[in-house]
Each structure stands twice: as C-alpha cells, then as structure tokens.
Amino acid sequence: MRELFWTEDRIVKAAQLWNEGRSARQIAELFGSKKNTVINMAHRNRDRFPARQDTRQKPPEVDPAPVEPIRHPDRVRRVTFSGAEVTMPRVPFIDGPAP
Q1: What secondary structure does DSSP assign to 8-38, as a single string?
Q2: Domain ranges of the chain
Q3: Mean pLDDT on 85-98
Q4: d(CA 38, CA 52)
C-alpha cells in the first residue's frame, strides 16, 4: 500500500506557511511536490486554509467621457432586418453624395 503524502504533520506545517502568506508554488517546492497537490490539499482542508484576499490593485474607476463616434464620409449607419446597427459603405445612388 502506498503511503499518504499529506500526513497530519505536513498539513499543519503547510497551513502555517499558507497563513504566513507563502504561495502554493513555494509550499510545493518546500515539500517536493507540485503546486496542484498543495491546492487540492488546501481545498480538502478549507478550515485550516482560509481563502486569500485579492491583493491585486484595481484601477480607479473613472467615468468615461462620452465618445463621439467618428463619422467617415464614405460610410453610413444602417439598421438591419434583425435590428442591429451596422456601418456600411455609402452608396451614392441610395444615400446621395458625400457631405
């Protein structure tokens, strides 16, 4: 029979490293395993491995200024049968001369 890799002692040590802020990859390197092994073990022992907060900085929310669409003289906006608005080439005998 194969021995269990994650013994109680290893789980306790991994939980300490996790709570210190070490990544799953760093913990795996210390134990000689793979990152996914650590992640799966942490998932099975959620009570010992609390979820980490997202530490990435979020960009400040800025209200975008309304952008005026660029009007190309050789193109016109049309509404298709399905109701979609599209931009198509100007057809002189339908749309008249370019402004």
Answers
A1: HHHHHHHHHHHHHT--HHHHHHHHTS-HHHH
A2: 8-44
A3: 82
A4: 14
